[in-house]
Design brief:
By secondary structure, the chain is mostly beta strands. It is globular. The N terminus is likely disordered.
Amino acid sequence: MEHSHVFRISFGIVLSLSMVFLPLSADVKVTDEVNAAGCPARIPQGAGEFEIERPRSTGGAIVRAADFGFSSANTNNAAAIIRAIDHCRKIGAARLELAPGTYSCFDADHGVIVADMTDFTFDGRGATLVFRRPVRRLFANSDRILTDSNLLVTNCVRSVIRNFKMDWDWTTDPLCDVGVVVETHVDAADNASYFDLDLPDWPQGHPRYGRPLPIQTMTPINAARDRLTGDAPNRLLFGLTEGHFGSKMAWLSKNRIRVWPGVRDPEQFCAPIAEFYYGAEINRKTAGALVKGVNYRLFHYYYGKGGITLDSGRHVTIEDVDVVSCFGMPIVVSGALEYGQFVRVTSEPKPGRPCAGTSDGCHIARSQGHVKFIGCRLSMQNDDGFNWHDCFTIGVPKDARHLQVTNLRGPKYLGAEPGDELELLRWDFRPLGWKARLVKTEGDSFVVDRDLPPLEGEHFLIYDNTYRSDYVLMRDCVWHDTHLRSLIQPNHVTIENCDFIRTGNGVKMVSAHSREFWCEGKGSKDIVFRNCRFEHTNLTADWRTGGDAPEFETYVRFPRPKPYPPGNDVFTAKLPPDFDPGFHGDILIERCRFIDPIGTLFVGNPIRNLIFRDNEIEMTGQRKVRPFAGGFRFGTAQDVFITGNRYKIAPSVGAIQPRIVGSVPGLVVHGNTIEQ
């Protein structure tokens, strides 16, 4: 029987404030009283409650992987587990058990694959699975081979995968090293500037000594290796695609290397998308910016493979799994999954190691929605702490029924399959009322089953309506010492009783698309944050000047007109005339605690129906803050409610007076207090 979920949509006063009050050019104190009697027309409800079903009792057998070659003496244990799962599928087994111990999964072409199981439990029984697989040479950052993930769960129904650890073979193939800058050299000649790094973890010699050592990114880290820092230059990028080598390097000794940033090694693979990481100016400026004595995380890998990948299926649970480290993203949802959950899944590095995952910590790339994260912990990854979204792409009519994809990542990036419903929007997100079925993909084009509409503007926005990653619930989770942002791009999201500690940036409800890179985010609505703690977030802002450094932000990024300015800035934040402020909206942030925010609490452009109420903001004086700390800034905005918030500002902070800046029809400010 089809399971029905429960969620609530409630309405308060049905009269929008924007219909009552004239636009207010806001530059007011948070302690002022502005339209104090106003109430929201809608109270956001977020994801509501929904159930992920567990396996039903079938009376099936219990199978042990040891009977299929799963052994500490075997180095290809992923294949042994797959053989055992195949047997379980054939006999309708209810359970597969591993055994305590450490097991090598050095299979060349795949990780562990749990596929096509119903009412099934995979019980690791505390086993540690250590993975190692050769690098593939892929051509774009978005390219993925699902079976390369350490664990791929696909096309399963009412299934549980639980109780084991996964790690990578750092002994012979470290994912990341710590390098200390010991020398820099800027040369007048093109491509002759360099810097030298010591690798202190390998006094006996690095396992790749004498062979090329790829370096894809570098990010600064403290000496104890338990905190990320913002030392400048904060992040060096040399190319992120799996198999891409990065910059030219040479071994100076068994644990010292020389790197020529921005210089290609002609003998190594360079992904086509990485061309702009090279050049004489990049070489000279990068070498000149590095500072002796700074510790960097040297990532040899970035995108690719992955830890846990939850693909298609319904009612799938991953619980009590520890992703100690992985090549790529520790947690990935990518496919036609509906109703899935991660319960007590962690990804934190071993003491002394500089990272857990090598890229985004938790990624929903596409799904059919209803995903939970309960009691999870994550830290010390690279890039975004979490990024939940669906993809779209851009294209133009090639003829009546051929839709040519003009984003350089091509049709594969969207992930559309024959039979999927495609929808076109104008370049500015306005609906066209046009939908069709995808017949097939031919080269760079989608072939559809009805004539295309006339093109308005440079391109269409192309949506695949198969994927709607809505209804996401995160509860009782801790994200700490993460590298960059927390990105929310679906609708109907609840995050409650969670801690965000020393995160690199703030929480963003965003949409951004370009001709060259990603196209993500269709507008975020009905978002709830409740009873969460935000402590010393926007960590990297401590080391730079300028900007709002917001705790929360909404924005839309469009392709910048060509030619691009220096720095490959392919996005523009300029909104089209009459852009809908409700593209992002119905956002409730209540009963949260903000400890030492460095900048604004919320920057909204666009935003409609923001409710920021009954929160505590504490500035202890332990962190230098900006003059506008604790304030709000709005661009295209409507119906904003800032009420009942309590500020506690230590005397050492100084005379901080948080303000609300922007032209906001329907602004309500009421009951906010400051204790200094």
